[in-house]
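Predict structure. Input: Rhomboid-related protein 2, 298 residues.
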Amino acid sequence: MEEIDLEQQEPLPVDRDGKKFRPGADRPDGDREVGCCEKFQESVSRWMLPEDARSKYLERANCCPPPIFIILISIAELSVFVYYAVWKPQKQWVTLDEGIWNSPLTYQPDKRQEAWRFISYMFVHAGVEHIVGNLLMQLLLGIPLELVHKGFEVGMVYMAGVLAGSLCSSIFDPHSALVGASGGVYALIGGYFMNAVVNFREMIPLLGVFRILAIVILVGTDFGFAFYRRFAAEESGLKVSFVAHFGGILAGMSIGYVFFSAYNQKLLKDPRFWLCIVAYVIFVLFAVLFNIFLSPAL
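Output follows.
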C-alpha cells in the first residue's frame, strides 16, 4: 500500500480539545469569514490611504474605540443650535436672527478682546442649511479620517482650521461677524484633498478622480451659500464673513496634509511638520498683533 503523508493532508476541522469548529468562528485565518467591521475598515483604507500603507492599517484596524472627537464636537454644535433655535424665542431656523447675533459665542469685530470668541464661534450656526451642511461634511469625512488617524491628529487639524478661519476673517474682512464650523470642516477637506492629489496613483486613479470632483463640487456649493449669507445680509446690517473658509482650507492644505499623509510615521522627524508648525505660529502671532494695533475695526 502507498504510504500516506499526514503533513500533506487537509487539517481536520477540530481544535486542540477535539471540538469541531463553529461555522464562521475559531477557523484558521484563511477560512474565516470577513465581518462587517473589517469590510468597512477595508473600504476606509481604500479611500483614505495610499496602497503601501493599507496593509499596516488593516493589521491593527478596530472599530473600537469609535471616532470620539468628531462625534463629540458634532453633538456640541448641534446642541447649541437646538438651544438657540428651540429653547430660545428666536426665528433662527432659516436665517441669522438677533439672538444669534447677540450670543456670547459669536465672533464679533467690536468684541475681539473676548478672545474665546475666536474659537467659540464654531458652535453657532446661521440656520438649518448651515448646520446640516457642516455636520454632514465633517461626519462623512471626519469619521473615516479619525478611524485611520488618531483623534488627537484630527482634532488638531480641525481646531487649527477654526482658529485660522477667525484670524483670517479678522484681517481680511474685519467688519464682519463670524459663525459656523466651516473653518474646521474646510481644514479636514483641505488635508484630505492634498493627500488625494499627491497620492493620486496609489489611491486608485478612478476613485481619485471621483474624490477630487466631489470635493470641488462640495466646496463650490458651500462657498456659494457663504457668499449669499455674506452679501444678502448687508441690507439687515448683519454681515457674516465667508473668509473663514479660505483660512480653514489653507490650514488643512498645510498642517492637515502633513498629519494625514504621514500615516504610521514619526512627525517629529519630518521637516514638513516643523515647517508647517512654524509657519502657522508666525501667522497666528501676526494676526494677534494686527488685531491689537492695526485692525480698522478698532
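DSSP finds eleven helices and no strands in the chain.
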